[in-house]
Structures are given as C-alpha cells and as structure tokens.
Amino acid sequence: MSEKSIKFLAESTLKSRDLEHRRKINFNIGKYNTVVPFGKSQFINVNLAREKAKNIKWKAIENLDKQLEDFEVAFSGRGGKVIWAEDANQAIEAILQICSEKNCKTLVKSKSMVTEEIHLNSALAKHNIESIETDLGEYIQQLDDEAPYHIVTPAMHKSKEDVAKLFAEKLGTDPNLTPQELTLVARNILRKKYTEAEVGVTGANFLISDIGGIAITENEGNARLSCAFPKTHIVVVGIEKMIPSISDLGLFWPLLSTFGTGQQMTVYNSIVTGPRQSNEADGPDEMYVILLDNGRTNILNNPKQRESLYCIRCGACLNACPVYKNIGGHTYDATYSGPIGSVITPHLQNMKSYKHLSYASSLCGNCTEVCAVKINLHELLLDNRHESVEQGNAELSEKIAWKAWRIGSLYRKLMNVGNGKIKSKVVNKVFTSWTLSRGALDFSEKTFNQLWKEKHPK
Fold first, then answer.
1. Which residues in 89-225 belong to E strands, given as ranges?
2. Which of 131, 286, 319, 420 could, after both became Cys, cross-link 124 (CB 3.0–4.6 A)?
C-alpha cells in the first residue's frame, strides 16, 4: 500500500465522521441543486445539448495536434506568443523568465486550477514575487494557506462564520462582519493590487482554434481585471481545453454555467485574442499563452481514458458524488478531486501512488448521469482499476486473496464445505483488508446446491 493510499484512508476515515463538515458541504451543495434546474430550463433538450457538446469535444481531441497548430498560427498572427510546456517545471521556468524580464514584484492571478496543478504561487514566493489570488474563494483559501477544496467553489467547506474569523485573524477585521462586508474588505485590498501588478496570470476555460483566442467565464470580473491592468498577460492552460470554433461557445458557455453554478450564463464572459492592437484603447502590451501538457498526452495516448479529456471542469460530478460529499476535496490530496480527479490523477501523476483514488467510488454512476459532456466516469474508474492490476500494482496479499476466492468460486465442493456461520467467521478473519473499510462478508446458512435439492428433491 502506497503512502498516499495510507494517508487517504486515514484522512477519509476522520473526515467522514466530521458531522459539522458534512453539514456545511450538504448545505452548499443543496443550494447548488436547487438552482441547477433553472439553468437547465434554457435548453429545449438538455440531453441533446450534452450529446452535441461531447461530439464537439471528441472532434477537438481526436484532431488535437492540428487544432493546437491552428491556434498558434492565428494567435501569433495578432502578436501573441505561444510557449509549449511539457511539464510543470517548464511552465514555471517560462513564467519566471517572463517575470524576470519585466522586473515583476507583484503578480495578480485569477482563478485557475491549472496554476494550482503546477504550484505556481509557491514557485513565485521562492523568487520573492508576491502572487495575489483575486477570486474571492481563492483569496480566502490563500489567506488560510489551503489548496482549493472544489474545482468551481474553492472555499465550499467554509461557512460565513469561518470566513469572518479568518479575516479577523489575518486582516484584523471585525469578526462579526456579514458576507457583504467581507466581500467589500477583499475588494478594497485586491483593487489596489491590480494597478500595482506588473504581470497578470489567468487560466482559460476554452482555447478557440479557428480565431486563436482564449475564452474565460467568471462571476466576479477578476479575470478581466487581471488581463487589462497589468502590461503583461500570461495564460496557463491545459492543451485539452481546445474547441474547434468560436461558434461552439454558444453551446459551451451556457452549458458550463448551468452545470457549474446553476446559472443560465455567468456574469462575465470574455474572448481574448492577443495583446492590445494599435487601434485598441486597452489591454496588455504583451500576451503569452503557455500550452501545458503535464501528463495529458499520456491520457491522449490511452484509447479508453481519452474521453476524460472532454471535461470542461464544471464540477457537477463532485456535487453529485456521495464519496466526495462525505470525505471532502482535500482528502484526495490532488489538484483535481471528486470523480474526474479520481479518473485523471493516476495518469497525470503516477498510477502506483494514486490507484487508490479509483477505488474511492461507490460506482453508483451518478457522476456520469450529471456530467455536462456525458463522460462515462464510472466506467473509466473501472478501467483505471483494471490498468492498475495489469501494470502489476496489486499487492501480493491482494493477489493471493483473489486467487483463493477464484479457486473457491470455481470448485463447488469447496463452496459447499462447512455451514454459513463457519465460512463467514473464517473468511472475515482471513480477508482483514476487505473488512477494514467494508461490512463483514455474510454467507447464507445454506448453499445454492442445498436449496436446489430441497426445492427439487428428484
């Protein structure tokens, strides 16, 4: 058992018994579940919209090499600069190089999971560059020195009282401030940072191949400000975020809004195609797009798992997952939590270290049911389990246990030995790793052979 697996089991055991944590999560997810039907009402046929979106992402991923090249040509044509990064180190190196050239002391950053993936803030801190999270949820998490708890809602596990207490400790504010007052405090601090920052960093919800642009959707306007005020704009984006055409946004923006937050559309939706042009009044002097691989081509090279690259990071699968709702986002110890995180993390990181995440599922299929682009998440979790065994990651005790189970199942005489009570007692004592986190195995008093003979004595 890997260290990651041992840590996961220990933390999930504690977190699942934390009733206050479960109360907060179920309260916040309950609010999400209430508004999602309103967002869905804009679609004449929401399932058809999901199917169409899946087909568009299939087209983008199956032709990803050409789509990326087309993006680079169009983006470069407007004065933008494209940087290809094979891994997190290359991405960090490129960002630090740009910051050094611009003599950057302060950097503003909008909400971006991919920058969490490469641990950008800690890398900048080592080089004495102040990196400020400008999304309210991310800012709260940064103040608390915590990673995001959720793909869409970084501070979902915190109540308004928790945030008020945190602001009082870190910023010296009144511990009884209302959510509106807390928001104003954060706004006053962050607005000054936009004008001070030499560099702004954003992610991108979509890469648009035909126009060479990025699309960003948000509710606070912090990404727009991070793009517009600093003279240098850096975009860090995973290569899988590609869509073929700007016309596809007519489907993807409302779909992402509905399944992400329950809105018909988010408040701010921006398309950025490069630095400020000669006939434009605002925008950055320079713009860079860092196209990050960091394990994504491992998934692309896997015919079964390739489907997971369709994900638009709406977070719906996290909100639907009974495991996530009980153990929380931090227990996964990975950038991407919940069902989609359990699917992709073993391929982005290391199968041996993270194979346990694929078992952190009830396989109820609810994640697949709510996925905005109809990814068969529960089937991909099963495929991960199979791949892990095929790669030889199963422990010796596990192999012996399944071998014994197979032999016992194939030979009726062995199955008929002893009564149900004896079998239950023996098996539950031998297979302790099974009963450690599951209910005890309970054999029936009579075998199938015995029941059959009683019903059909002749």
1. 106-109, 130-133, 199-202, 206-208, 213-218
2. 131
Q: Residues 216, 294, 384, 398: is their CA dihedral positive or negative?
A: negative
For residue range 255-298, what is the model confidence (pLDDT) as tens digits? 999 999 999 999 999 999 999 998 888 889 999 999 999 999 99
Cα–Cα nearest to 163, from 381, 376, 153: 153
154 with 135: CB under 8 angstroms? Answer: yes
Q: What number is the average pLDDT over the span 37-47? A: 96
Rounded to whole angstroms, the Cα distance separating 418 from 315 reads: 50
- The pLDDT confidence band at residue 438, using thresholds 50, 70 and 90, is confident
Q: Which of 206, 254, 379 is nearest to 306 (CA)?
A: 379
Contacts of residue 103, Cβ cutoff 8 Å, sequence gap at least 6: 198
What does the DSSP assignment read for 260-323?
HHS-SS-SEEEEE-SSPPTT-SSS-SEEEEEEE-TTHHHHHT-TTGGGGGG-----HHHHH-HH
* C-alpha atoms less than 13 angstroms from C-alpha of 407 in its C-beta half-sphere: 6
Residue type, 208: I
SS3 208: strand
Is CATH 3.40.47.40 correct for 42-294?
A: no
Residues forming CATH 3.40.50.10420 domain(s) in the chain: 42-294
